[in-house]
Specification:
It is built from 10 helices and no strands. It is mostly helical and about 250 residues long.
Length: about 250
Amino acid sequence: MKRPFLFSISIVVVISAVNLVSAGLGTALPQLPPLGLEFLAELVLALLAIVLLTALHCWRNAGFRALLSLKDLRLYWVPLFPLLPVLIAVVTGMTRLRVGEVVFYFALAGLVGFVEEVYFRGLMLRSLVSLGLWRAAVITSVLFGVMHLQNLLFGADLAGTILQVVYAAAMGFGFAAVTLRTGVIWPLVVIHALIDFAGSVTSGDTVMGEVSATDVAIYGVYVLLFVAYGVFMMRSVTRLRAQDQSESVGLRP
């Protein structure tokens, strides 16, 4: 990628444009359900991602390939951590929802997981690696967090959105580090979808409402966990890359 930063900004612009159009439709046609508009926006972005991956012939390079070793699955326990405290709440939440609502939230979460992982960890992260591993991880995580400000367009609470921006940036950093370590993103697509599905089922919405001191404390733990794990994984990645480079130099005649 000759202009990785321009490519990344282009992705941000495309995502923002689709979300702005969706929000505009909601304003112009208030009878349309907000969740329906959000689903439509994610569907459009998913189709665009599929077209882009196909046109660039980069499904494999973007991370849709087999793990080098099944042992690498153990590296995903931290990304799975946010799911553990809400398992009981998910079961409770699903009992008060109709089957159609559960299916809708699951489909929407699947689209969001696919879209955000493809754009940020599959395409953007790969293109920015040429600028350096740490820069790529940090830039994509910051952009990923900032993009969640667009939730305000769909009626999210300001304080809750700011908290979500910080949490998303930390999660994005951890996800980026794991992606650089394993070279695949499909496990993160699944995990991301499950996290969003759990949040939607327990809250009955896809955006964050008013937050309590407990919410701040819980998300604060998540932020620290993802940042710490991201740093740990990035050090592992840089160490492995350095070993590979030294070995390749040693093999030269």
